[in-house]
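Notes from the pairing session

We agreed to fold both candidates in a single pass and log them together. This is the raw record for the first candidate, unedited. Please don't reformat it; downstream parsing expects exactly this layout.

Candidate A
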Amino acid sequence: MRFLDFLILWYCMLDCKYQNVISVKIGEELKLDVLLSNADKVEHQSTSSKGWKEVWKRGHGVQNDQLNDRDGNLIINNFTANDAGIYRVWGSEEDILITVTVKETPGPPPSKKSPRSDAEQLSK
């Protein structure tokens, strides 16, 4: 690691403007506003892994079916525990632009009403 890269990483760790922590419940959709005009790629390190996996790259888009990129957002559909971890956004000059830590929020997934539930509520 070059000294300049180390300084940028250290600065990003200290400055909350570039580092965020987000909590998400299992089953929810997560929108990460990270696809900046100078973003080159996004990597993810899950909480159960030491390695980094590329999940988005400029010109190639998302790298799996659970992700979408739309309007500058990286969208994770149906969030799972495997999606928790750290997301790093790299610039075209191999500099870290944003670091986002995503944590799983304890609790059940959002409930979905069945079509009968509204009718049942009226009959009570």
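Candidate B (folded immediately after A)
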Amino acid sequence: MPNENEYKNWIRFESLSREYQVLKSEQSARIGFRDNLLYVTLASMGALLGFSLFDNSLDSKDSERALCLLAGPWISIILGWTYSINDRAITRIARYTENQLKKHFERLEGLDSFSVLEWETIHRSYKGRFARKLIQISIDLFAFPFAGAFFLVLAIQKSKMDFGNFGLCLIILEVILLILVAGHIILNSGLNSD
């Protein structure tokens, strides 16, 4: 029969195990959601591009079609920000698991020779990780803020700058927000912590 310390240790172990399971479940759900945002972005950008440039049923002049293109940066901003926030949460869960939860497991009696949550450290230490992260950041930047900037340039070219004050203010706001999204993606990339 276990003594009181062994029983408390078992309760702590079960509690930590449950916390680990819940965190990994949330992390997995966020990864799926984040990754699907890339597909949603590509599909919505393609649909907008097709509608704005190739739909001959629109009986409008180029400047009106160009205004439709100004929706592209908003797609990039909203989905890019959501992508980046989810990526940040995924990273924070991983860091908490690796730095905090692992320490709590290691403090439990009887786990001295047991390697606790080793995968949380090992999978982040492979060769080429830095290069892979640079490629991922490039993809994230192209999928979100650079794609939004592409739509801005296309809108300006198609409209011949015939936007009026509202369109000009919208373009300035979109440029500022696209820069913020790009900065958020870069700052939360984790390059400085690896």
